Amino acid sequence: LAWSHDGQRLVSGGFRRVRIWSGDSLATEREITHGLSGRITALEFSPDDSTLALADGGNGRPGYVRLLDPAVTSDPPASMKSWRAHADTVFDLEFSRDGTRLLTAGGDQLVRVWDVASRRELAVLEGHTAQVLAAAFNTNATQVVSGGADRQLKVWDIATKEKIISLGGPVASITSVAWPGDGASILAVTDAGAVLRYTQLKSHTGEQSSASGDERRLAELPDSALCISKY
After folding, report:
1. Which residues pair with 11 in a beta bridge?
2. Alpha-carbon distance 43 to 57, whole Å?
3. pTM for the full model?
């Protein structure tokens, strides 16, 4: 599920189906059932709501990203842009705050950064040892935080493609992350139900300490936490 930023649309995804709903009446405005390769695994509106990004595919199959105009009524939408983004499922995606970049996290253990206009790959961030389940930009899209099934939470510099911070020592898979506000803190949740906040973020290089931020547990949920939102 994903809400548009103006609250006028809600979009939901299933198996080879995307449904766009009115945010006011919750009536279905349109459905997309053509041009999709599998189940919808991630959805996100651009900051100005002019573009809907979706990811689809399936376990062990390539993950595709598709960009479309949510106001277009044709099926498949006219001028929908599609490309193979990962060799496995795309679990998460996010636009930069200016809408020019798109971030994807994949089951192939990679994080990728894309230029939205050209769909050109700007960076590949490699260092996780299992599925990357979540990723988020900082305020100006120069850094990325990512977490995954390897129980690792990492911060990357996009320009150098290097890991600059390793956060905490989670004992469960990181299922969702957010980098809200002015970028002073990072939020994460785990499949064990922990809600975590990291502050005092300190970059490091080489073999320096991997404990590079102060961790605070905000909550312990009784079951898995699967999503956290910065809005």
Report:
1. 2, 20
2. 13
3. 0.92
